[in-house]
Design brief:
CATH topology: HIT family, subunit A
CATH superfamily: HIT-like
Largest sheet: 5 strands, antiparallel
Distance between the termini: 59 Å
Order of helices and strands: EEHHEEEHEEHH
CATH class: Alpha Beta
Strand order of the largest sheet: 3-4-5-7-6
CATH architecture: 2-Layer Sandwich
Number of domains: 1
Shape: globular
Strand content: 15-25%
Length: about 190
């Protein structure tokens, strides 16, 4: 078996060449630091749900950029990229199939507006959009439905998070929130 890669904060990365498997065309990026999001005990209690608490706060403090009737948009407190947004229904539901038709429609509409606003303000060239449904699927907050909108740019990937254990986010969250909130069309949010 190949020797393990050097240790990163006590976690060893290993090569797969020595394991019994049929090789495929995919490369794997092992991210053991993400286990904190899926291990037992990492989910907040329902009464401590950050997505239920956020709408009760001032928009600036909760990082909310827009509010709709059934859902709202806020910056991710732990972004993958600058401008990483979340679209959440106000109602505390865990999965997309529990959402009402009105919630589904507004989540979709807010997502489209978010894409337009991020394209205008951040000049992004693409997006990763998705929902992790349930703890087993890697949802950081599994009890409250939320959709990620991650802006992407050519050449925005680097190995800083893996090698240095650090994610470089070039702008402060409050700055980004203010810019997106100012650019949000007034007719699409309350």
């Amino acid at each position: 078996m190949d020797a393990p890669h050097p240790s990163l904060d006590g976690v060893e990365a290993e090569r797969g060449a020595g394991f019994a498997a049929v090789p495929d065309a995919f490369q794997r990026l092992w991210t053991p630091h993400r286990l904190v999001y899926i291990e037992n005990g990492q989910q907040p209690d329902d009464d401590a749900c950050p997505f239920c608490r956020a709408p009760e706060m001032e928009d600036e403090n909760a990082l909310i950029v827009a509010r709709g009737e059934h859902a709202y948009v806020l910056l991710n407190l732990y972004p993958y990229n600058s401008g990483h947004l979340l679209v959440c229904p106000y109602r505390h539901i865990a999965t997309y199939d529990e959402a009402s038709p009105a919630e589904v429609a507004e989540i979709g509409s807010l997502t489209q507006t978010a894409m337009r606003v991020l394209t205008e303000t951040a000049h992004c060239q693409g997006f990763n959009i998705g929902m992790n449904q349930g703890r087993i699927a890697g949802a950081g907050i599994a009890a409250h439905l939320h959709q990620h909108i991650v802006p992407r740019w050519a050449l925005d990937s680097n190995f800083f998070p893996i090698i240095a254990g650090t994610k470089a986010v070039p702008r402060l969250l409050g700055e980004v929130r203010d810019e997106i909130a100012r650019a949000w069309p007034s007719d699409s949010a309350q």
